[in-house]
Amino acid sequence: MGNGISVLIADDNIEFGDLLNAHMNSERDLNVVGVARDGKQAIDMITDLLPDIVVLDIIMPEIDGIGVLETLKSSGRAGKTMFVILSAIGQDVFIQRAMALGAEYYMVKPFDVDVFISRIRQIYENKDSSPFSVIRKIPAAGFEQKEESVFDVELEVSKLMINIGILPYMRGYKFVKEAVIQAVNDEKASMSITKVLYPSIAQKFNSTPQKVERSIRKIINEIWTKGEESPIESVFGHKLSFSKGKPTNSEFIAIMRDKIKTEKRLK
């Protein structure tokens, strides 16, 4: 990759990305190895190039920045790459989520480019004991939980989905993810998916129960391979049998829910 700190920029704003690329490449110790314009391209480029640092936006086409972090953290494909979030979104929920998924630093646009580049250097120099990464290890006020005792349902669901081939850029991903999360948190919801679960998901995403149902069905059809061991069986480690060869939506949500709850008990 050449000399200096290798950096990949992932931002769908073409003008901004090009300006940041030019500014960073003007620094003798920085080497921009590529600019990704959407989340899917970012994942592919990060996996191929394994840059030292990725400058990642949150809002991008195909897969957003959080989805990029979820995918790479779950698959372990990012190696020792460090992530710096540079986004116009400054809400605490996004900052906390990004840090929980491994981001080293979060800076909100607009920003001072010289300060930002200084942070890049500091993060790289302290890569073995980053002072910024400590932020995500501080427990919430009033809690004394040890880090290993915390079970992040959303993260575990994301990891399981990726392991069986349901990726963040797939249409219906958000519906499946929300369905499993709600089923884990409220078992009654998975017992009445038509009357309770679908309407709840539809309301959250400003959709319709019918569209939620169809999208989940489409995901199941996409990942289930006819005549071969299903991706779920390879992950779950045992043979699964369904009357129609593939699970119904409710059966699929139930086995995903049970897998997550089993993992939770083990932790």
TrEMBL record:
Q: What GO annotations for molecular function exist for this entry?
A: calcium ion binding; DNA binding; DNA-binding transcription factor activity
Q: What does this protein do?
A: May play the central regulatory role in sporulation. It may be an element of the effector pathway responsible for the activation of sporulation genes in response to nutritional stress. Spo0A may act in concert with spo0H (a sigma factor) to control the expression of some genes that are critical to the sporulation process.
UniProt-listed InterPro entries = Bact_response_regulator (IPR050595), CheY-like_superfamily (IPR011006), Sig_transdc_resp-reg_C-effctor (IPR016032), Sig_transdc_resp-reg_receiver (IPR001789), Spo0A_C (IPR014879), Spore_0_A (IPR012052), WH-like_DNA-bd_sf (IPR036388)
Q: Which Pfam families match?
A: Response_reg, Spo0A_C
Cofactor: how and how many bound: Binds 1 Ca(2+) ion per subunit.
Task: Give the species.
Answer: Anaerobacterium chartisolvens
Major site of localization recorded for this protein: cytoplasm
User: Where, in this chain's numbering, is Ca(2+) bound?
Assistant: D11, D12, D57
Residue ranges of every copy of the Response regulatory domain listed in the record: 6-124
Name this polypeptide is given: Stage 0 sporulation protein A homolog
Q: Does the keyword Calcium apply?
A: yes
Q: Which GO terms describe its cellular component?
A: cytoplasm
Its annotated compartments are:
Cytoplasm
Cofactor(s) this protein cannot do without: Ca(2+)
Q: Which UniProt keywords apply?
A: Activator, Calcium, Cytoplasm, DNA-binding, Metal-binding, Phosphoprotein, Repressor, Sporulation, Transcription, Transcription regulation, Two-component regulatory system
Residues modified as 4-aspartylphosphate are: D57
Q: Which GO terms describe its biological process?
A: detection of stimulus; phosphorelay signal transduction system; regulation of sporulation resulting in formation of a cellular spore; sporulation resulting in formation of a cellular spore
Q: Say which domain of life the source belongs to.
A: Bacteria
